[in-house]
Amino acid sequence: MFPSDVNGLSIHSWWLLGGGGMEVTNYCFLVVFLLHHAVFSLATSENLTCGPGLSTPGYTFPKGDITLEYGSALEIYCILNPDRKENASSLSFTVNGTTIPQSAYKIVNRTTLKLYFKKHPPGRYVYHCLLDSIDDPSSKNRAVCLNVVHVGYKPKEVSNFSCISQNWENMNCTWDPPNNSVPTYYELRFYLKGDRKYSYPCPVHNVVDQNNCVWNASSNPPHRQPYAQYNFVLTAINRLGNLTKRYTVNQYARVLPNKPSNLSLVEATPNSLVISWNEGHPFKSFPPGIVNRLIYQSKWDPQTYWEVRNAVFPPKETSRMYNITGLKYPHTLYDIRVFTRSSVAPDEDFWWSEPATITLRTKPTIPGHPPLTDIGSFETSDSSIETERNVYVYWQQIPRHLENGDKFEYKIIRIEEFTDDGVKIRDITPTEVSKTFAKFTGLSFNRYKFTIVSSNSEGYSTNASYIDVPSKKQSPPEPGSFSKIAFDNGIYELSWNVAPNILSYTIFWCDNKKDRPFDCQGFLNWTKVYVNKDDLQCDENGCGLLQKNITLSGDNVYQFALSANTETSSSGMVWASCTVLPQLAKGKLRNIWISRIGSTFIELSWNLDCFVRSRIIKGFEIIYCPITDPQNSNCKEPSQNMTINGLEIINGAKVTINNLKPYTTYMLYVIAMSENKDDRIKSDALLNTTLEAAPDLVPTNMAIHKITNSSITLSWKPPVSLNGVLRYYQVIYGTDVTRVEDKSEVVYATLNNLRSFENYEIRVSACTVTCSKNSALINAITNVGRPDKMDPPIILNTTKRGIQISWKKPYYPGGYLDFFDVKLRPDRVKDHEEAPFTRLNGSLFSYQWKELECEIYQVQVRAVNVGEDNSTLEGEWSNPTSSNCMFKDKDSIDAWWYILVGVLAVIAISIAFGYFTRCMWLKCKAMQNVGVKLPPQLELNNVYKDNKFPADQPITNHIGTTQLKSLDTNIIPPPDQELLLVKKESEFIENSIEDGEDKNGDRESSGCGSGHDSVSSSITAGTHITDSGTEADERPPSPESPVFSNSPRNRSSDLRQRNISHSNGGEEGFSRLALTPASVPMGYVTVQSAPRGYVSHAPLFLDSPIRK
Known about the structure:
Protein name: Fibronectin type-III domain-containing protein
Region (Disordered): 991-1072
Shape: extended
Domain Fibronectin type-III: 157-258, 259-365, 588-693, 698-785, 789-890
Helix content: 10-25%
Radius of gyration: 68 Å
Transmembrane segments: 895-917
InterPro entries: ECM_Regulatory_Proteins (IPR050991), FN3_dom (IPR003961), FN3_sf (IPR036116), Ig-like_fold (IPR013783)
């Protein structure tokens, strides 16, 4: 583009208007030019180039950069070297890459072309002189030389000269230079007050683009911190001239502090925050001092609202503390920001520091207010038990900024029941609690009073709210025919019938996300309406209808309720169950929803109380049809309808649409039919999909593709109607079931691990949530395979001639059983050594080996099938069966029989001998129980019955000669008895010794022993007996013991004694001799051992009076 002049004309236009009229008739100029040209002609060849070291076809004059003041003329000569073949007509000029028309320049002579502008516009331009070479046509527009032209002004005064001392640690001066194409240099110096002789330059050398200067503690010269006033001298210099300006700056007023540091909390209360911060070291000695500004806002304030507080502290106090009092909200986050400014700086936002920020929370306290309630803010409903009712207690939530702490909730802290017996405090837990209500179930029909408070972690609110629920008998009647009509712009019309004796009505509305029948969960508000007869409207039923309009903001969903109030009680809240639109024909039917859905049915429910009370609905028509998908509501089949009589409509009615297709999306809508046929209220379309079910068709096109001896490959196609999402196929073959999850249009499946040569019946079913019926049966027989392992063979006979065996078929033959292999291996041959086998026809089931050696053999058998390709498929060898050793002649066999008979005979004789021995032993045991009966004259009991002896004394103490003499000698037996006694005496003593001997030297009086083994054992059954011969029994027998019985059995046994010594040979022993239980003293006697081991002592009755 050409440079433009002040009037916007291009160089070309400008040249034509003025510059082009210039003629080379100025003689003076021509003379100068010719002289100049002559001088250049005499110069060396180096001067005929554009610059040193460059080889160019010519040069321009003047050379290098050209600086012009705006308004001056521009002349540039492009001169070819004399030796060039071209002439000036081959030259041209461009400016900033744009070719200048030939009319803008003029040929001076053969080698010189002149460019001239009388008044060049300001700016920076680059002019090129170009040559069209004759020698080289490809080198068109060859550069001859260039000039950079600056057209501008003399230095002008700068703008926005300003100096700032950042944190009183430096001085930074900046300015905005004026727009000037002529490069201008700036020099800034300062001197202090009263000392103009010495000025201090900028520490850094100025350059063209540098428009600031900074002095600090490390610069040279340094920053002069203590001085308040700086005097600056700014000099602007360029090729066209220079300009000097002076500025005076108050350093203290230009200090911009850093933001405060260490901003922190010192103390917090529910309504105040004490904070502290530091201002930094330099300001401890800052003469004018600094001021602070605090701004803060709570989370409940609008974002644009800030509280502002100014704080002034002593100049030298850098650590500062401030108490922010009067905060409105306990337990609330506050955003606090602290700014700093020099006290002498302008009170403008620019001179305040960056803020130090902190977010602090005030201390919690108890809630600021209890929830609001109204006389009618409760609701009663029937319970499943006739004698009980349910009660909803409603309240208005307090603003969140009054919650004042964590764990905020509403609590019912006291429930009073007014009964005939007085007021009783009830501890009843609500079954449901929300931010707006609490539900109590199973209450009686008595009056209740509920006390409600706000609660948080700090405690309960100071005040409480109360709700009084009257008894059922004292409750006023509920409002009748309560309905609402919604208009545009948030206008609602409420109407109801006024009952007598009602003082006022309370209209409640709940800002909720959903209309009834959903419970109120949002903010509850209300207003009171007092009954005025002038406000009542009349209809066909009389004058008692009251209407009120309420305007609410926003597009929220509002639920409305109404309570009838007397001076002392209320009926409680009655909710408007639906919304009536002002124009039924254009309105929509609401409160209709799908309550239940199955695979073949959809159940619709509704709540239409207000329509029923308005008596405008005669019935309903339900229209439904299947659609393609929820995004396309066009019916893909003709619509169907169901009509319901209006008399059948009750609150919460349900209608079931049956015979629907499973897993199909249906569109349903309901039309309410009124008495006026033109008024038909249509609901919004309801879309829902029936649940999945089992496919009503089975897989088709089943086919067998490949059969091996262990697998079957088959295919099928899915059912046409799936009734859901296909999850898998179930393949049933034999007693096995497998799952296939392939969902292709044609499904291929391979059944593996099958038995060979087995007939399989295969069925397939498709499964969604459940499976369809099985497909048609298809049979397939697997190919011949290897037979199973056979049972061990049975050895039928082993004779001199050989071994004969038989076998059974394997349980799973796997084919036709074409052959059987039998193998006979001597037991001495190791298992791993192969033995020859014999292959037999499959129809044989026995085999015999002949002429075998006498040794043990292992016999095995296996089955063999012939495959489809005539391959041999051999089964596994059976477990071996061992055979007995073979005998070569009949004598050997007979010898074995003799041995067997002999062994059996020995066993029989041993059994007979044992039986005989046991019988004898039993007989001997029976003989032990036979008692000995003596004549009365021989019984010692009669002889000594009148004598008393100490019990358990040694026999020498009561059998000795001295004591025997003291016996009663007046008793003289008859002569025959005397002889018998003498004889019995000797036998008695001898037998007593012999009775004690056993096979070791002691023996008893009979071969089998006696049940009364010895006198000592009879008398001292409970007495410990030692074998020392010197130790007496420590426990005498009890007089009550059976030993002292006077029965004949005991008396007969008193004469028996036995040696009970446990010693052998000559060891001493002792014997006990009982004379009579009543008169003979008890004890033991020690006697010397007889040579045979007998017990010997003097004749018992040697000095007896009887013998005398």
